[in-house]
């Protein structure tokens, strides 16, 4: 700010221009670059390649050492590290990798860990692979534990068994430990200790079972039995067990069979859809079961056990190893991201397996809610972004800077304006004590402190005269500037600077923001970036005459959200009656857009569909409130936190709730064509939806009172006005004049938190939006857009008799939900199937007509007449 200030009382004072935005930016950029370099994928790859080469180098050097150590050892002993600096002819070594190879191997083998030194090759190898691939293929900490144990155990054992060999099998480390151990325990004791340590490690790592031993002992006295005599020849093929190998083999087979049986049983019990394992590959398996241990538990998985398809075998193995360490047996279900998505967009139903591990199938459903509290198995917190774990946020390069780095300051212009203001005020006998100027991107704010005794209203009344004398349009007088005790006169700059969205997005304030829905709006007069949280606003009303920057403003908001949010965290509902303004976002339909089921286009342009969509959003809101209530939470943040901690059961309809932002590009048009039908749901959403994460951005060209009604206005505390054509319009939108004085091209007033701030809206051009949309659109997506609940217009259904001939397409699904839950409640259908009240009610009437549920009992749930699913299937078959 200081750079832009011109203080007349101290013209000579030259303060360091520390707050020059350009200077600041350079510092920050330098800092950002180092961080970026460390985080850069390429840096990791280079490190990876170095590690892999090191691994290979050590491997060759060590292996060569095994054969050449005798020849080289003397020389390395004699010259020590200086061998590396000697010339080739004076010392010749036999190691394949020369003097360095001989020295390094000697160092590792002789002075270090002997044969166990090979573990270092492994360590470099796993580090290298992880870095090169760019993700955790091997678990470094886990492996490090094994490597440390291995170094100690292998070197000691090698030293113990090779105490008479000249080769340093155990290295200095092995020798030292071995020496101490023999002294302490004696040779036999040391041997026993090593044996116990080795066996313990094997048992720990591979969970060896000793059943074969038991079986072998049992089977010994029994005579061999001929296959024909076996009661269940298909299950147990009894063969004489002549040796360990056969016994183990049979045992493995038996275990396999037992597993298979258990799997089938468990599946039967838990309604898990049986899906062929991947080797029965006629088509992609829907779900794959990986079973661990015994089957006394029902397993429950999906929403978060997203192990993406490409998970490497190694990683899987490691996961499984980890699970082996967990108490109790487990059964895991793996599903692909597409399945997860499909399931999420679908309502949960009985085929969906639950996801927590419950101790038994018989458990009461109410208790299921409590189940996660029992420490059955520690699961990692749910991570919604794993839905699309490879998703890359758009990069800054996709946006242009529009040569906007510098604010143009014309010292002559500043002086002229200052003199004009002082003279004009003098003409009206208004003396001033002090005047200062702050140069913004489009306007300069002159702040004056009037002399004692001058009435502020006098200056305010001279607005037009001052404008005339400055021969400038768009002068706005702020008398007084709130909280400052000065009077502000905003004068447009002759040369205006554009504010690029790129600049704002690159700013630290935006990058570091932890807001739920950060929107980069523009720059204030003092060049401070204005970044706000849409979730706190909680809705935004934008108005402005045509061509003043509304569409650019909407793009700015949408693009800034796209830069900060993952597709799993945010969905847009786009309403574009003008048909062309938001069409660019079609490319991100499967990532970020929400739509009605069965609709082709996610961007809504037709008024009738807008009404349906708004009502569907109201249903979504109601359903979300039901979920919040059931979870005992007050807002989306608490709810999602609880869900992430796996304290909410998806089988009961709980799911991670993304924020939903409804954007209406031309509200006036909708109100003109649909009136109350649009106004009512918008007003309802505006009143209630903030707590459940639904936020509205509504733009209009015509901010007249019949469009922005009292109800709408009351629920949109945050408002943006671009230039409007009259003071009345300005009052309608901002409750005060001023917007008619703006100069257009993104010059705007924001009324937020009781303050009115003048901003230059950040500029983002259509090709930039297109690039961002393409960048996102090309990445892996959900199978379809986020589905809003179905809304059936009452008018469409009016007069339709309850007829079983003309059943609702969801009839069978509804019947199953009711029978599985044994609860004839309309709200259950609403919740589980994401339906509106009317449709759920009609379904219930049809179920009654089919005899599946009893008659309406008022406030109580209806009785369910069909007790089992098998009975239900019969009824459904009969209905045909
Ligand atoms: N923030 C901005 N910075 C610089 N120029 C801008 C800015 N916003 C808008 N403009 C200029 O104003 C023109 C009109 O903007 P825009 O299309 O957003 O207006 P609009 O209010 O949406 O008009 P309409 O209602 O007719 O669609 C843009 O093409 C651009 O040249």
TrEMBL record:
Q: Which residue stretches does the UniProt record annotate as biased composition, category Basic and acidic residues?
A: 1-18, 251-263
- Residues forming the FtsK domain are 527-731
Residue ranges of the region described as Disordered: 1-26, 243-264, 357-381
What Gene3D superfamilies has UniProt attached to this entry? 3.30.980.40, P-loop containing nucleotide triphosphate hydrolases, Winged helix-like DNA-binding domain superfamily/Winged helix DNA-binding domain
One GO-annotated biological process of the protein: cell division
Entry keyword annotation includes Nucleotide-binding:
yes
Which residue ranges run through the membrane? 46-67, 115-134, 146-164, 184-204
Membrane topology type, per the record?
A: Multi-pass membrane protein
One Pfam family linked to the record: FtsK_4TM
Q: Which UniProt keywords apply?
A: ATP-binding, Cell cycle, Cell division, Cell membrane, Chromosome partition, DNA-binding, Membrane, Nucleotide-binding, Transmembrane, Transmembrane helix
Domain of life assignment: Bacteria
Q: Which GO terms describe its molecular function?
A: ATP binding; DNA binding
Similarity comment: family membership: Belongs to the FtsK/SpoIIIE/SftA family.
Q: Tell me the protein's name.
A: Cell divisionFtsK/SpoIIIE
Supply the source organism for this entry. Answer: Chitinophaga pinensis (strain ATCC 43595 / DSM 2588 / LMG 13176 / NBRC 15968 / NCIMB 11800 / UQM 2034)
